[in-house]
Structures are given as C-alpha cells and as structure tokens.
Amino acid sequence: LSMMEWIEPPKRERKANYAVDAYFREALRVSEPKVPKAPRPPKQPNIQDFQFFPPRLFELLEKEILYYVPRNPDLPNAAQVQKEEQKKIDESMPLNNEESEEKEKLLTQGFTNWNKRDFNQFIKANEKYGRDDIDNIAREVEGKSPEEVIEYSAVFWERCNELQDIERIMAQIERGEARIQRRISIKKALDAKIARYKAPFHQLRIQYGTNKGKNYTEEEDRFLICMLHKMGFDKENVYEELRQCVRNAPQFRFDWFIKSRTAM
C-alpha cells in the first residue's frame, strides 16, 4: 500500500428526500374561500351572586349573549324546552344604545367592593353572633365600616334566596344561632341555681340522680359551677381561666386529677 498512490474518492452528495404526497397536495391545492369567523360576544363582567346586582342586569346580559349563540334550525325531535331555548336564540337582537347604557349603569349598582373574603367573614360573623347582633358583626368584617356592613346585611336578608349556596349558608348560620341560644339557656339555669344560696361555694348542693359520673367529686363540681358563674359563663376563654383558677385553689393542691384537666 505504501508503494501505491492514494486516489481520493469523490465527495458524497446528499440527495433531497422529496415528500411526494405533500408536494402534489400543495401543487394541486385549490384555494378554498375562508369561512368567516362568527362574531365574538363582548367580554362578560365578573359578577358574583353575593354582590346583589339589580335583577334587570341579568336580563340584559342574557339578551346580549343570546345574540352571539350559533343558530341551529334543525331540531326535529328536540324536547320542548330545547325548542323554546332555540326560539329565544333565533329571535335574539343585539343591545341597542339605550340598553347598553342601562347595562353600564346597572354594573355600578351592586356591592362591587365586596369580594369573597368579605362575604365569608360576614357569614362567619352571623354564625358567631347571630343575625341580629349587627354591631359585633360589623366589627368582624375587616376593611368595612359599620355603615357598609349594615347596608349589606339589609340587602343580604332581603335577597339571600338568590344565592346558589343558600341552603348551606343558612344551615351554618342557624347552627351558630342554636349554640348561642343554648349558651343563653345554660346561663339562665346557672344564675337561678346560684341565686338559691347565700354562700354557694359552701352551701350549693347538686342532685346527681343515677347519672353521677365517677370522675369529679361534688366538691370539685361545686367549685367549677360557682367559679364559672363568678367569671361569667359567656366570657371568651372562660374555661382556660377556670383551669388556672383550679390550679391556684389551695383545696386542690394535691388533687392531681382535677389539676391535670385541660380547658376542653
């Protein structure tokens, strides 16, 4: 090989790989007329049911959107409801200038500055205090003045049936109001019991009947009842304070059972 002269081979050429089908499809393609796009409906405003816009606004919005729904005249076996809906679509007209102006005006008449967080705080406050305690409810809704909450509350109770989730919301509020009523009845019973004695911490007697629990003694129960009344049964965190009173009471210095009880 060293004696032979090297002959360089010719350079390899890359052959184009024609996609024949694509070529002929492009060559024979007849320009088809473009189908005109259906007109787009105007952007719909973000409206929440808890903002309580005037009902007329929803009529205008429905009319506006119906005009842009594609028409489908072939409904031979459609149900009556479908036919009626189709009739609305077929007969729909765009909003005229007066209706457009009316729509824009109505969009300012709801509670536009109330968001979902404000609404949830309002519902939780109704659950906590009851629907009639508007002063405490107003304090619970952050970022809203008492006047704003009072105005919203009036409209809410007038139009709450328009809300999609009204059954769940009312059940939540009524559960809270039932707890409030129970606390009121317990407080009345506690006041009546204590009022029978001049020195209830020493004289108070408890009729257990056959249902006496085996955990607490009568001395412990007497102290808990009297101290609960003294501090105020409806006071916030009263059981945490009651637990501290038990820990500080000299008569329970070696009563490890009651000293180890939690607030719950």
Structural account:
It is a single chain. The protein is mainly α. The protein has three domains: 18-107, N-(1-d-carboxylethyl)-l-norvaline Dehydrogenase, domain 2, CATH 1.10.1040.30; 116-178, Arc Repressor Mutant, subunit A, CATH 1.10.10; 196-260, Arc Repressor Mutant, subunit A. The chain is built from twelve helices and no strands. The protein has helices at residues 20-28, 55-66, 80-90, 97-106, 116-129, 134-140, 146-159, 166-194, 200-203, 218-231, 238-248, 256-259. α2 packs across α4, α5 (116-129) packs antiparallel against α6 (134-140) and α10 (218-231) packs across α11. The longest helix has 29 residues, at 166-194. The protein is elongated. The N and C termini lie far apart (101 Å). The model has no long low-confidence stretch (mean pLDDT 81).
**What's the total helix number?**
12
Give the count of structural domains. 3
Query: Gap between N and C termini, in Å?
Result: 101 Å
CATH architectural label of the largest domain: Orthogonal Bundle
> What Rg is obtained from the alpha carbons, in whole angstroms?
38 Å
CATH level-1 class of the largest domain? Mainly Alpha
Q: Give the proportion of residues in helices.
A: 40-55%
Q: How much strand?
A: under 5%
Mean pLDDT: 81
Low-confidence stretches: none
Structural class: mainly alpha
Outline: elongated
- Write down the CATH topology of the largest domain: N-(1-d-carboxylethyl)-l-norvaline Dehydrogenase, domain 2
Order of helices and strands: HHHHHHHHHHHH
CATH superfamily of the largest domain: ISWI, HAND domain
Task: State the major sheet.
Answer: none
Could you tell me the number of beta strands? 0
